[in-house]
Specification:
The chain is mainly α. Helix content is 77%, strand content 0%. It is built from 19 helices and no strands. The protein is elongated.
Length: 559
């Protein structure tokens, strides 16, 4: 028999060698710091040469352009020798020097050496050439440099005049270039750079130049930018073997941010025209439903990730529909819209088993409940038959659905959230019923104050209101206890016990001193009956809560 080798045990991840950190500092961070240092050095040298008047201005710009082009060409020597990262760093230095030279030619000298329009075209050529280099050399870093230079060009060559058409056409060309690259390269980080650059230029122009007379053109550009970024999931390749191993944060988060940004811009321009905003919301809902269909049609072999993106587009459409309802009707319907949106997202999360969607749904539901409890506290005109109580019912129904589905579909680590939802359900129900009672007595109080001597009547109304609250809480506590016994749920029973304990304190401490004799007797009797009934159930041990030693049953024991 051959000798049996000693057993080997798999250890965890090997400890990180300090040489890894050293290598990262040497290869990456020192490289980037070096690029910045060279650019600063070149800028200071040019400024020093300008101050000393060593070189004629035309020659200075020519030297800068020649040096920049020469560095870009020279960098290819290192790329062919498999020093790609160093080659791209040199290209970044050369491109930066060219941008600086063109900026100086148009803005630094007085009078300018070249017109601003000529510098703008030249910078555009530099940006386009950098994009071509990025595509031919498969270098995402170069594409990122091109975007930085492209979006800095309008700001660096600004003349202080309003050129909305030229500016936004230029920005649109840059965004279209990113879309074109997305069709061939998996460079999703460029989307964020393009989106950020577009927003910075858009907001900067709006703060300085926007007027009501320009609204039509500005709206067209707003919708055009939104459409381009909305098309990103459609034009991005989804070859599972190359690009799409799982749900992409960019392709799931960016559509939400883009849709919200576009609508906020429209809201800022149509703040006082809610009817128009309603049509925009419905139109954007239809557009996202169309995008969901196009995305689904384009993915011939759907995966979990592509299904998530498709359903997220549907969720955005639902969100715009729910926004359109309060815009057309009343602001109180915003809460209902958010609640319906959270329910739709929860259904998508359960269907797709994607944690990101669960987070979105939880945030939306939390915001809706906060708005419901803090903002939607207006007085109502009718008991129970009002929008506020309807909103509470919708929230309670959604929380009830979460509790029901949580017992079947929730992860183990999500069970505390399911229990919190059950508690929130009962808290909302108590708040809703208490508010309805408070509004009912407030309407009586308002009616009484129109009469003459209303002091004693107001005192009686206050006493009756306090008694009604105790009655509501006591009845609801008894109901919760019955449900807890029926479902054999300790969580529900504990909620009932806490509520009943709170009601006991109110009855003995407050109601004893405030209620008149008849209501005081009724309050104590009702409380006593409920407590005796609950005590009787516990004493009968219907839930088998008492611990019994395990023993062999004897004949006749069941009798």
């Amino acid at each position: 028999m051959p000798p049996i080798p000693p057993p080997t045990f798999r250890s965890g991840a090997p400890p990180r060698d300090s040489s890894d950190l050293e290598g990262k500092i040497g290869k990456v961070w020192l490289n980037r710091i070096g690029i910045v240092a060279i650019l600063f050095g070149a800028a200071y040298f040019l400024k020093y040469a300008f101050d000393k008047d060593w070189i004629h201005p035309n020659a200075r710009v020519a030297i800068g352009m020649i040096a920049g082009i020469g560095i870009v060409i020279w960098s290819d020597v290192f790329r062919r020798k498999n020093y790609a990262a160093f080659s791209y760093s040199l290209k970044a230095v050369g491109i930066g020097i060219m941008y600086l030279s063109l900026w100086a030619a148009a803005q630094f000298f007085s009078p300018p050496l070249i017109p601003v329009s000529a510098a703008f075209i030249a910078m555009l050529v530099v940006t386009a050439a950098t994009i071509v280099l990025a595509l031919t050399q498969d270098a995402e870093l170069l594409a990122f440099y091109a975007l930085i230079g492209g979006f800095l060009t309008p700001a660096s060559l600004s003349t202080g005049q309003n050129h909305e058409l030229a500016l936004f056409v230029y920005v649109g060309v840059l965004d279209l270039a990113v879309l074109a690259m997305a069709a061939f390269k998996p460079w999703r980080r460029l989307f964020w750079a393009s989106f950020a650059g577009t927003q910075v230029l858009y907001i900067g122009w709006s703060l300085n130049y926007y007027t009501y007379s320009q609204r039509t053109l500005t709206v067209l550009f707003t919708l055009a930018f939104g459409a381009m970024f909305a098309l990103i999931p459609v034009v991005t390749p989804h070859d599972k073997s190359r690009l799409y191993k799982g749900p992409s944060v960019t392709l799931t988060l960016l559509p939400f941010i883009n849709a919200g940004t576009v609508f906020l811009c429209l809201f800022a321009m149509y703040e006082n025209e809610k009817a128009t905003l309603t049509w925009y919301a419905l139109g954007m809902a239809a557009a996202y439903l169309l995008l969901a269909s196009l995305f689904k049609y384009r993915t011939s072999a759907p995966t979990t990730a592509t299904t998530v993106i498709n359903l997220l587009h549907v969720a955005i459409a639902i969100g715009f529909i729910t926004i359109a309802i309060p815009l057309k009707l009343d602001s109180r319907w915003i809460t209902i819209g958010w609640l319906i949106e959270s329910a739709a997202l929860l259904w998508i999360a359960v269907s797709t088993k994607v944690d990101l969607v669960r987070i979105f749904a939880g945030c939306t539901l939390t915001l809706a409940i906060i708005r419901l409890v803090i903002i939607d506290t207006h007085q109502t005109e009718h008991l129970l038959l009002n929008v506020r109580f309807l909103t509470y019912l919708v929230a309670i129904a959604i929380l009830g659905g979460i509790v029901w589905a949580g017992e079947r579909y929730a992860y183990k680590q999500e069970m505390p959230l399911i229990k919190m939802s059950a508690v929130a359900l009962n808290v909302l129900a108590l708040i809703a019923l208490t508010l309805e009672a408070a509004d009912y007595f407030q309407r009586i109080r308002d009616h009484v104050t129109t009469q003459g001597d209303y002091g004693p009547l107001l005192r009686q109304i206050d006493i009756s209101q306090n008694f009604s609250w105790s009655a509501i809480w006591l009845v609801y506590g008894a109901f919760l206890m019955a449900v807890g016994f029926w479902k054999k749920s300790a969580l529900v029973r504990w909620q009932a016990l806490v509520l009943i304990a709170f009601t006991i304190g109110k009855v003995f401490i407050y109601d004893t001193s405030q209620l008149e004799k008849g209501l005081r007797i009724l309050s104590f009797v009702a409380l006593g009956v409920v407590l005796l009934g609950i005590s009787f159930v516990y004493q009968r041990d219907w839930l088998k809560l008492s611990v019994r030693p395990a023993s062999k049953p004897t004949p006749g024991a069941s009798a």
